[in-house]
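=== RUN LOG ===
request id: a7f3
mode: sequence -> structure
chains: 1
length: 305
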Amino acid sequence: MWLILAFMSAALLGCYDSLKKQALKGNAVIPVLFLNTLFSSLIFLPFIVLSGTTTVLDGTILYTASGGWEMHKYILLKAFIVLSSWILGYFGMKHLPLTIVGPINATRPVMVLVGALLFFGERLNVWQWIGVLMAVMSFLMLSRSGKKEGIDFKHDHWIYMIVGAALLGAVSGLYDKYLMAPVENGGVGLDRMMVQSWYNIYQCAMMGVMLWLLWWPKHEQTTPYHWSWSILGVSVFLSMADFMYFYSLSLPEAMISIVSMIRRGSVIVSFLFGAWFFHERNLKAKVVDLALVLLGMVFLYIGSS
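=== RESULT ===
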């Protein structure tokens, strides 16, 4: 069940990335991100209210548990990590081709494994090392493909933003499993709907402050904001993708390393969108890079299963 949910999340995540690229086209980043967090919060707010005031959702997968500061402090940190990743990712995606951003994001499972290696003392097996090396090779090959489009991986700050977003995303993935793992297994044991609902609300509050203090005073001198229905689509597809993701992780047999790898399969969907709808260039070389990333994920899967 958790594998099916992970694959469904990956497909929805690919649509989310593609809509995000469309929403950011010629648009101001901060108001778009604020609206994304606002719409996501509005999607989950009814579940919080109904769960706290009625018994309608009791015993359903939409029931949202309540808790005090002891629980919310963990969710607040989750919101800060994710929002930091999103800010970097949104700015980077706006200025880079989707067919470059996708494969970079697909290296996130490698970052999770390396993080486990460095900070948790885990040891990689031969299959996992092969997967890591393939991911590194794909990144180097992708940098060569990027040069043909005038993108220098060593000096392009948008690339650094995407890499930073991927790193923070990997941190968030490890933290998610910790949040929802049972207390007896060393986790916090938080309710998945509580995490998803409230971290969106906390992000919306943070983005509201940024919108008011950073963007609004200078909005007339920066990139103008314009409404696009793809902004609403971003929130809807992300909410569905995250719902499947958190539901998958909440199941006791779920493995974060496998779920993270499957979720990165979303790059196939976003790559196709970049090719067909955004008419991005140099696709033949990027297909080879993408294939190497996906092959590396296969090796990681074999080594982690």
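=== NOTES ===
The first helix runs from residue 2 to 24.
The mean pLDDT is 85.
=== END ===
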